Amino acid sequence: MTDVRVAQRGKGVLRIFNEAGVLAAADVHVALRLSALAGETSPDVYLATALAVRAVRAGSVCLDLTRLREVTVDEESEVDLDDLPWPDDSTVIEALRRSPLVVGGPAGPLRPLRLVDTAEGELLYLDRYFRQEETIRRVLDQRASGHPVVDEASLRRGLDTLFRDQNDPAGSSAPPDRQRIAAAVAATHRTSVIVGGPGTGKTHTVARVLALLSMQTDRPRRIALAAPTGKAAARLQESVRDQAGELGLPPDLTAMTLHRMLGWQRGRGSRFRYNADNHVPYDVIVVDETSMVSLTMMCRLLEALRPDTQLVLVGDPDQLTSVDAGAVLADLVARPMSGKENPLLARLVGSDLDAADDPDEAALSAAERDRLRGGVVRLSRGRRFGGGIAQLAVAVRDADEDRVMELLRSDAPEVSFHDIDDLGALRKDVVDTAAGVTEAASGSDASAALQLSEAHRLLCAHREGPYGVAWWARQAMEWIGEASGQRLDPDRWYPGQPLLVTANDHETRIYNGDTGVIVRRADDELVAAFARGNEPFLLHPTHLSAVQTVYAMTIHRSQGSQYDTVSVVLPGAESSLLTRELLYTAITRARRHVRIIGTEEAVRAGVQRRVLRASGLRRTFR
Ligand SMILES: Nc1ncnc2c1ncn2[C@@H]1O[C@H](COP(=O)(O)OP(=O)(O)OP(=O)(O)O)[C@@H](O)[C@H]1O
């Protein structure tokens, strides 16, 4: 028997790294094929190439050659990474500098790798990702070289009207008001980036940005609202529509996925209808949940923009990033800012920029002020949560593990911490939620069933194993079966069955990650219901190409959704999936209560472990 994960052609160092589980067979094949085409024979270059392919697979845009050894392997692997025959960093870099894979060779113009020197060390790119990153950098810099033409007096009036004191509607909100700064930045820059944790008012601000921009002209602005997933688009649309009447926005603004906005075409691969030669026809584009946008998608979006289209990128850079390579939103916030601050900003919101601390909002730091040059504003004042969840999220984000433990062990009603044997409260939430959803679904009330299915969600870091989704979903089904006296059979459709879509279907506009529920219609037919705008979208379940029954889901999948109560089953402290970003994402899925199930050791390990996502966007190239 051969192990499919081991590349049969791999020899020497590649074979050793492959068998140790650091490299996949595909990484080895790509490295060998490229080397053969270019006539490369150095084992150091083989290894670096295979590690560069692996890095992209693991979500990085490039390989950080100064951190070669920072790789993770499966938990089951018993290999000690330090025992592997790691070459010396500088030997690898020297070999790459001479390599035909990097400099081109007699075999032809093929140059599949790029070696880049930066102040913090060398990066190795697969050419395709290098070019995408270059495009992003170039388009952003071009767009930052000028500012939109605006009517200053009208903007000032707009800001005064839209950002009111909550207690005194005749007055403006107290400075510093970062939402007002964000709106002013968005109105005066071609590209702006509005970031913040959950409930900091990102969508509230976006609706006001749209109102502010619409006030600037008599001609209606062509506005596009977009998000990387269908679910996130639906949420954005709903929030903006809720505020449309109050703000004088068109009542029928529709949000769509980025794929749809760029004109995804069946059978055309990543080639969109709108691209560098055929720009998207909008004056203003808002992208929500930008943390989930991959490098490739950001590249496609930026190259499809008209130079004068105003782009507002919104999201939470502390969350888990896209499944594909890149952490573009976090990079845009952290990258060295070029350009000068738009002087108009100081005239419009000078009192916010210069204000001292206010009881509700701290004064702007020097770093925040600097980020304004790049059109980046971070909203920090939580507007939604009763303290506990937000405080916990902030402590995780700031890697303050003692504070995290203190909050978990406090009696804050929004947070609880349970041992893996202490499952009574979880069981009750699972059973009660299923009972509520089943009752509504059996009574053909699709809206209520969908709403009730957001009352509680069980999240895991892993798919498999004792901490994984499969195990916990089975456990949940047993609990529900015992409580209702009826065994659940996920191989047949039944009312109240919770669904998770696992692949995009552009035709039905049902997307990977969308969740729904099976409902019995008044005519007794069973249909799948998905939340979409005000009315649920119903379709026959056989029209769903890829769908699972979901009593537990991975934290990755839960991105872009929120639930009243979230229960998070943590894996063991040694799990490489357990990271700060993962914990932060899980905690911030909860609206009212977050229940963490696991050990103190696991919490502390998770808070300290970071997702390594190498990219060049944060660096200055030499
Ligand atoms: N300046 C404000 N004055 C009053 N209420 C506000 C203000 N800003 C936000 N809110 C309210 O706070 C809540 C959270 O705001 P919003 O939904 O815009 O946050 P968000 O950052 O988009 O959150 P999420 O990331 O979870 O979607 C909403 O109910 C909103 O109406």
TrEMBL record:
One protein family per Pfam: RecD_N
Enzyme class: isomerase
BP-aspect Gene Ontology terms: double-strand break repair via homologous recombination
SMART domains, alphabetized: AAA
Residue span(s) of domain AAA+ ATPase: 188-378
Reactions catalysed: ATP + H2O = ADP + phosphate + H(+)
Positions annotated to bind ATP: G196, G197, P198, G199, T200, G201, K202, T203
GO molecular function: 5'-3' DNA helicase activity; ATP binding; ATP hydrolysis activity; DNA binding; exodeoxyribonuclease V activity; single-stranded DNA helicase activity
Gene Ontology cellular-component terms listed: exodeoxyribonuclease V complex
Keyword DNA repair recorded: yes
EC number: 5.6.2.3
Record note on quaternary structure: Heterotrimer of RecB, RecC and RecD. All subunits contribute to DNA-binding.
Further details from the record: In the RecBCD complex, RecB has a slow 3'-5' helicase, an exonuclease activity and loads RecA onto ssDNA, RecD has a fast 5'-3' helicase activity, while RecC stimulates the ATPase and processivity of the RecB helicase and contributes to recognition of the Chi site.
Its job: A helicase/nuclease that prepares dsDNA breaks (DSB) for recombinational DNA repair. Binds to DSBs and unwinds DNA via a highly rapid and processive ATP-dependent bidirectional helicase activity. Unwinds dsDNA until it encounters a Chi (crossover hotspot instigator) sequence from the 3' direction. Cuts ssDNA a few nucleotides 3' to the Chi site. The properties and activities of the enzyme are changed at Chi. The Chi-altered holoenzyme produces a long 3'-ssDNA overhang and facilitates RecA-binding to the ssDNA for homologous DNA recombination and repair.
The name this protein goes by in its record: RecBCD enzyme subunit RecD
Native source organism of the sequence: Rhodococcus oxybenzonivorans
Gene name linked to the record: recD
